[in-house]
Structures are given as C-alpha cells and as structure tokens.
C-alpha cells in the first residue's frame, strides 16, 4: 500500500491534491520493524513523519528519576508523531514497535510544507492534536489522584479508546496486541502487585477479561464514561 493508494481513504491525506500526493509518494520510503525495535529516541533529529500501515507503536518518555512515565499507543492507519511538527527539531519521546510493524516514512520538510499550504488538511491535523490534548489532560487529572484504583482504571480506559476494536454482535471491545501488567502499572504510577489486584477486581466485576496479556473489555461503556470529565 502506497501513499497514492492510501490518500483518499485516510483523513490525514483526504484534502491533499493529487499532485501533492504524488510528490510525497516520490520521496516516501516503506520500512518494516520487528517488535521491540526503536524508531527514534528523545533528542534524535526529526527527519520524517510516519504513516503506520500495520501493527502498533508505543510512545514512551520517562523523567531523569524514572518517577514519571508517559505511555501512549498508536494503532494502524495513523500518522505520528503529532508533536512539534512546525516547531521542534528533535523528538520529545521514544517510538518503539509494540508489535511487528510496517510504516511509510515521509520527509518532514515535504510533509510540513504541504500541510501548511492546505487549510482543510491543516484544520484536521489541529483537530486531532486537540483530541489528543484533551485525553492527556484527563489522564493527568486522574493520574494525580491519590487512588491507585482510579489511576489503573484510567489507564485501561485510555487503552480501550486508543487501541480498542469493537466486536459485533456482542459489543465487547478487544485490544489486538498484548499489554503487560508492568506496562499498565508504569503508566498508572503504581506497583505491579497493586495493578494485578485491581485487574483481578475488574475481572470479578465482569468489566474485563485478561488472558495471556490480552485485554477484553466486556463493559466498554464503564471505561468510556470514566474518561468523561
């Protein structure tokens, strides 16, 4: 799948002219990464934006004391990174292949020039950034509460929203890739043992199932409502 094939089917490209789509296509590169490979780290020069063709990307950042941990997942058919496109010279966080992935790499100067000269596409880009910012504000609000149950539930709710795939006709929401207890606990700012206890409680309440590192949200509305401020 190329940029030309993706163009009219993805909102990140739908307002871009055929001429500009072909321009991006001529300079884009398709790359594959194995699970665990790093695409970039904090401080690396921003050379490209990536369209995730398949798989899941994990964005991470820790402070120097390893006390605060940022974790965000991106599923396929999305562009990243969305931070600092027009202002930053260096990456702010790490991007790691959470599963085997395939990406299309588009040179940053080409993409930013096309986007800045297309008001409709730029508006969509800003809208997506606003949605991400709102989610992060909610995560900060929930994450600063002195209640581990709330923090872990908020992390699960974000996973449900970011990676969830609704299953029909039952209406449950599944996560298509493994997520470990350690990753949930790091994102929640609590211990592995506490996280495990809270997950067991949610399983007992029939909110979720958790088997072989795969999450299944039986009561997706409970987690969706949890993110409403």
Structure write-up:
With 229 residues, the chain is an alpha+beta fold. It folds into two domains: 18-136, Jelly Rolls (Sandwich); 145-227, Arc Repressor Mutant, subunit A (Orthogonal Bundle). It is built from eight helices and twelve strands. It has helices at residues 3-6, 18-27, 108-116, 119-143, 148-163, 181-188, 192-204, 220-226; strands spanning 29-33, 38-40, 48-54, 56-62, 69-75, 78-80, 94-97, 101-107, 165-166, 173-174, 208-211, 214-217. It has a four-stranded antiparallel β-sheet with strand order 1-8-3-6. Strand 11 (208-211) and strand 12 form a beta hairpin. The mean pLDDT is 90. Pfam families: cNMP_binding (PF00027), HTH_Crp_2 (PF13545).
Secondary structure elements and pairings:
Elements: H1 3-6, H2 18-27, E1 29-33, E2 38-40, E3 48-54, E4 56-62, E5 69-75, E6 78-80, E7 94-97, E8 101-107, H3 108-116, H4 119-143, H5 148-163, E9 165-166, E10 173-174, H6 181-188, H7 192-204, E11 208-211, E12 214-217, H8 220-226
Antiparallel strand pairs: 1-8, 2-7, 3-6, 3-8, 4-5, 4-7, 9-10, 10-12, 11-12
Helix pairs in contact: 4-5, 5-6, 5-7, 5-8, 6-7
Short characterization:
This protein is α+β, with helices and mostly antiparallel strands. The chain has two domains: 18-136, Jelly Rolls (Sandwich), CATH 2.60.120.10; 145-227, Arc Repressor Mutant, subunit A (Orthogonal Bundle).
Content of β-strand:
15-25%
CATH class of the largest domain: Mainly Beta
Determine the CATH superfamily of the largest domain.
Answer: Jelly Rolls
Cα-based radius of gyration, to the nearest Å: 18 Å
Strand count, sense and barrel status of the largest sheet are: 4 strands, antiparallel
CATH arch. level architecture of the largest domain: Sandwich
| Topology pattern, helix = H, strand = E | HHEEEEEEEEHHHEEHHEEH
Annotation field: number of helices: 8
């Amino acid at each position: 799948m190329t940029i030309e094939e993706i163009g009219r089917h993805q909102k990140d490209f739908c307002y871009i002219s055929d001429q500009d789509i072909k321009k991006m296509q001529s300079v884009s590169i398709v790359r594959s990464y194995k699970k665990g490979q790093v695409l970039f780290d904090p401080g690396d020069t921003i050379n490209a934006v990536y369209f995730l063709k398949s798989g899941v990307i994990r964005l991470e950042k820790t402070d120097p004391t390893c006390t605060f941990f940022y974790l965000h997942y991106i599923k396929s058919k999305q562009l990243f990174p969305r931070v600092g496109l027009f202002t930053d010279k260096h990456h702010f966080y790490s991007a790691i292949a959470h599963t085997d992935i395939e990406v299309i790499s588009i040179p940053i100067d080409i993409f930013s020039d096309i986007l800045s000269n297309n008001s409709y596409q730029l508006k969509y880009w800003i809208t997506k950034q606003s949605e991400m910012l709102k989610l992060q504000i909610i995560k900060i609000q929930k994450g600063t509460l002195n209640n581990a149950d709330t923090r872990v539930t908020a992390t699960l709710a974000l996973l449900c929203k970011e990676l969830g795939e609704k299953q029909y006709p039952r209406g449950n929401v599944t996560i298509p890739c493994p997520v470990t207890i350690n990753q949930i606990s790091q994102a929640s700012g609590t211990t592995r043992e506490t996280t495990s206890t809270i997950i067991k409680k949610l399983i007992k309440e029939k909110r979720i199932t958790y088997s072989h590192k795969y999450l299944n949200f039986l009561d997706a509305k409970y987690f969706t409502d949890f993110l409403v401020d």
